[in-house]
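Budget justification aside, the reviewers requested a transparent look at the raw inputs and outputs of the sequence design task funded under Objective 1. We therefore reproduce one unedited record. The lines immediately below are the structure tokens for a 149-residue chain.
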């Protein structure tokens, strides 16, 4: 009896990774203007992908605001500059900017924000960059996102 249950438990545990690709990730931003991930790979079997940004620092959004913004690498710089011009009231993003594939809210220390986007917006082989659009942050706070196998 016990052996039968144990075997069933082992089999179901082993089956889990194959059944569900990991379609979400958590990224942290801190008071030193850093993300804790330099690269995110989105499994192409995911229909949707969720990114949760956690601000693990203590500084307020006005001083050390962070968001997570995804664009193609080619569009990143212009999107960040337009975001700076859009100002704090717009979360440092140009409203309805169609270059932005996904973005979280701009948050301060102790807060978190999630965004879920359709993976079919991503193209294999395209280079994507995620960054924080707070003024002065995007030069350092950025990483690479790609569509994986
Ligand atoms: Zn930031």
């Amino acid at each position: 009896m016990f052996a039968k249950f144990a075997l069933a438990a082992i089999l179901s545990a082993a089956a889990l990774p194959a059944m569900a690709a990991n379609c979400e990730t958590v990224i942290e931003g801190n008071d030193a203007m850093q993300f804790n991930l330099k690269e995110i790979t989105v499994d192409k079997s995911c229909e949707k992908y969720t990114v949760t940004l956690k601000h693990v620092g203590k500084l307020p959004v006005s001083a050390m605001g962070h968001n997570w913004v995804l664009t193609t690498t080619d569009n990143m710089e212009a999107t960040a500059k337009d975001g700076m011009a859009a100002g704090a009231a717009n979360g440092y993003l140009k409203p309805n900017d169609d270059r932005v594939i996904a973005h979280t809210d701009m948050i301060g220390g102790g807060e978190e924000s999630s965004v879920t986007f359709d993976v079919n917006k991503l193209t294999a082989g395209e280079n994507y960059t995620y960054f924080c659009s707070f003024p002065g942050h995007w030069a350092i706070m950025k990483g690479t996102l790609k569509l994986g196998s």
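Residues 66 and 106 are 5 Å apart (CA to CA). The mean pLDDT is 91. Computational costs for records of this kind are itemized in the attached budget.
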